[in-house]
């Protein structure tokens, strides 16, 4: 393992949200999350737990309007934290492909920590809402994260009849793929690209 600490602390303040995020890529899966949206907190906690990231997220958003700005801006801020924590990406695995089931639901995430932001999503959610969380915001969170972390990210809801299960499988497959792709490969001392940088 590199001696370099792969951590970040990122803040974002707009007329819609005030957000503070800290991230340790080489953590134990510990998290403290408070976005004001119970199900979203649950998903971010799962992201940390299954990705073995230490994560804090605090967001004060305009939830009197809806959940959109909170979820989008947390995705943006967390994406910036990933990019900062990864630094020059020296020695990382770079690619990962994970499928995760949750009962009847199955989600898939393929990621390239490429420095070239690109997002593709395929699939539908079986219900429009999960508590105070709009199901499609799971897709938008993944997109905001990918575009701000510099990821090429392909995500898919493969199967499911329950939106809670579908979104949770998506977050867990995202966590496992990010954990795999951002790990340091002890065999590699350079950046994993023929260009010499990502």
From TrEMBL:
Give the UniProt subcellular location, in the record's own words.
Answer: Cytoplasm
Pfam families in the record: IGPD
Pathway it belongs to? Amino-acid biosynthesis; L-histidine biosynthesis; L-histidine from 5-phospho-alpha-D-ribose 1-diphosphate: step 6/9
Q: What is the E.C. number?
A: 4.2.1.19
Q: Does the keyword Magnesium apply?
A: no
Q: Which Gene3D superfamilies match?
A: Imidazole glycerol phosphate dehydratase, domain 1 (3.30.230.40)
Its GO CC terms are: cytoplasm
Q: Which GO terms describe its biological process?
A: L-histidine biosynthetic process
Would I find Amino-acid biosynthesis among this entry's keywords?
Answer: yes
Q: Where in this chain does the entry annotate a coiled-coil region?
A: none
Q: Which CDD domains match?
A: IGPD
Primary residence: cytoplasm
Catalysed reaction, written as an equation = D-erythro-1-(imidazol-4-yl)glycerol 3-phosphate = 3-(imidazol-4-yl)-2-oxopropyl phosphate + H2O
Q: What top-tier enzyme class does this entry carry? A: lyase
Entry keywords, A to Z: Amino-acid biosynthesis, Cytoplasm, Histidine biosynthesis, Lyase
Molecular function (GO) terms for this protein are: imidazoleglycerol-phosphate dehydratase activity
Q: Signal sequence span per UniProt?
A: none
Q: Which InterPro entries match?
A: IGPD_sf, ImidazoleglycerolP_deHydtase, ImidazoleglycerP_deHydtase_CS, Ribosomal_Su5_D2-typ_SF
Family indicated by similarity: Belongs to the imidazoleglycerol-phosphate dehydratase family.
What name appears for this protein in its UniProt entry?
Imidazoleglycerol-phosphate dehydratase
From which source organism is this entry? Answer: Halohasta litorea
């Amino acid at each position: 393992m590199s001696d370099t600490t792969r951590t970040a602390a990122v803040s974002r303040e707009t007329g819609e949200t005030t957000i503070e995020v800290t991230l340790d890529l080489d953590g134990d899966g510990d998290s403290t999350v408070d976005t004001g949206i119970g199900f979203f907190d649950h998903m971010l906690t799962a992201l940390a737990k299954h990705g073995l990231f230490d994560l804090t997220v605090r967001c004060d958003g305009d939830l009197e309007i809806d959940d959109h700005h909170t979820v989008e801006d947390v995705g943006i801020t967390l994406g910036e934290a990933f990019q900062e924590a990864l630094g020059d990406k020296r020695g990382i695995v770079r690619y990962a492909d994970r499928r995760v089931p949750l009962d009847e639901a199955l989600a898939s995430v393929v990621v390239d920590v490429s420095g070239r932001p690109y997002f593709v999503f395929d699939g539908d959610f079986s219900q429009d809402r999960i508590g105070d969380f709009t199901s499609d915001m799971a897709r938008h969170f993944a997109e905001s994260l990918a575009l701000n972390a510099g990821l090429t990210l392909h995500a898919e809801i493969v199967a499911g009849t329950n939106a809670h299960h579908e979104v949770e499988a998506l977050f867990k497959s995202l966590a496992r793929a990010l954990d795999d792709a951002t790990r340091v490969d002890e065999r590699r001392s350079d950046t994993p690209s023929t260009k010499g940088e990502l």
